[in-house]
Amino acid sequence: MFNSKDFIVNINEDVGSDHDESSAAKKNRRWKETTERCSTFISEWTPFSLVASYFIFSTCLYMYASEGVIAVFWFVYMMTNFYIAGATVLEAFMSITPWREARKAVAEAEESGWLFPTPSNQLLILDLLIVAYLPNEQDIIMDRALYALQKIDYPRDKIRINILYNTPKPIEPLETELHLLTQRYSHARVFKVPNSTSKADNLNYFFSLDTGSDLIAIYDCDHYPQPNAPRWAVERFIADPDIDIVQGRCVVFNTEESLLTSMIAVEFDKIYAVSHPGRASMWGFGLFCGSNGYWRTSLLRDLKMDGDMLTEDIDSALRAFSRGSKAVHDLNVTSFELAPTTFPAFWKQRLRWAQGWAQASLKHVKMVYNKPVDPIRNSYKRDFTARFGVLSLLLIRELSYYLVTQYTCLVLSFIIVKFPKSGAELFRLVYFQYPVSQWLFIISVVCLIATLWITNRVRSEFVSRWMIVVFSIQYPFYLVLSATIGLYGHARQIVQYNSWNPTSRK
């Protein structure tokens, strides 16, 4: 017999059961969210704790060390600083030849009415890629795309301007406007990369396409390539068939926004116009630096980009070098880019670079001793000069972070234990504790001045002499900051921090 009372009781029990299950699901979800937040917090702050503990422990250690032990450490740090300064100034002097060759090439082009050696119909087919993370670069991508399509001086039947972008959510009407560019410009291509979460994903997607190009140029979205930059790069490939990569010079153009951007601009002139070409001349190998780089298509499609690396550009450059590929730096292949305008944006960018370099160094330092493997050039041999260059770039550079910060901790211990009463006493305390340090300090300063003098000779139109003077004054503090960021990158690598923070654009 049907019992309505029993039916109502059963219904209530079922509803109560569903309610209990729903509450349990909510509790599980909240617990999972809390756990994830705690895990993120620990992952974010553990590197900071490690670096802070490193500085505190080191400073305290020197405070209680004997005079003899401190003298030994002081001598080691000053000698190391002398080596780094000496290597830097040698790279600077070695960069003079590439700079003169670039100026000579420009002078010859001007005399010939800008008629390049290779006729237009014999130029190589070029795919120029503009890679963008759309939410972060939605305000600049259309401007950069139109600039590349309208201003780059290269035969349109020989070049394709490819816009590669990824976005976690639709952004309209911008996306539609981007795709409409293909109707206005015959050499425009626009690709919304599916399932992409990184620059490496965007590039690897394009490498899977058969476009029939001879060369591929890679640009970040904030760049303005100089109109003749592609032509200069292609002429290098045609003049020397052994060249596999041409890395151009990146110039910061937003120098007037802040002191930070002006200092980054000087740093970029020092790196791209002095250090990179100088190192390539001295050690015998160049590097692709992530943007304004030109590759032979076959090599790039073979190597691809490793999405597990934070600096996939450096990793791909080192993998190319490991198999004997030839990379050169050309100062006429110029591109103009944005520097971070705020310190937090600068900090995030440099932390990503530091951890990425640490990853790449751990992975590729074996090139110091291992046997090269080249599937194309079986005769390739890595000589002693190149091996020592790898040692300097990947190992000594990473260790220099500890040497600079240890010297800083040593000086801090002096200041705490023997607190100076005047500026002159502080100066003697920091730089002239021991007689030998006087000569090492003076020589290091001379090396710095020589490097900055050469930088001044090759500075871009956006950098003034006054900016270089300010940069030289704050350079010791910049070294300590860079070394601290390097340590932070190591700490992040230890805890396997893997969050990707794109650089803020304006």
UniProtKB/TrEMBL annotation:
GO molecular function terms listed in the Swiss-Prot or TrEMBL record: glycosyltransferase activity
Keywords: Glycosyltransferase, Membrane, Transferase, Transmembrane, Transmembrane helix
Coiled-coil positions: none
Domain Glycosyltransferase 2-like per the UniProt entry, residue ranges: 216-443
Subcellular location: Membrane
Membrane topology: Multi-pass membrane protein
InterPro entries for the chain: Glyco_trans_2-like, Glycosyltr_2/OpgH_subfam, Nucleotide-diphossugar_trans
Listed GO CC annotations: membrane
Chief location category: membrane
Pfam families: Glyco_trans_2_3 (PF13632)
TM segment ranges: 399-416, 436-454, 466-489
Keyword Transmembrane attributed: yes
SUPFAM superfamilies found in the cross-reference section: Nucleotide-diphospho-sugar transferases (SSF53448)
Protein name per its UniProtKB record: N-acetylglucosaminyltransferas-like protein
Species, as recorded: Delitschia confertaspora ATCC 74209
Species lineage: Eukaryota, Fungi, Dikarya, Ascomycota, Pezizomycotina
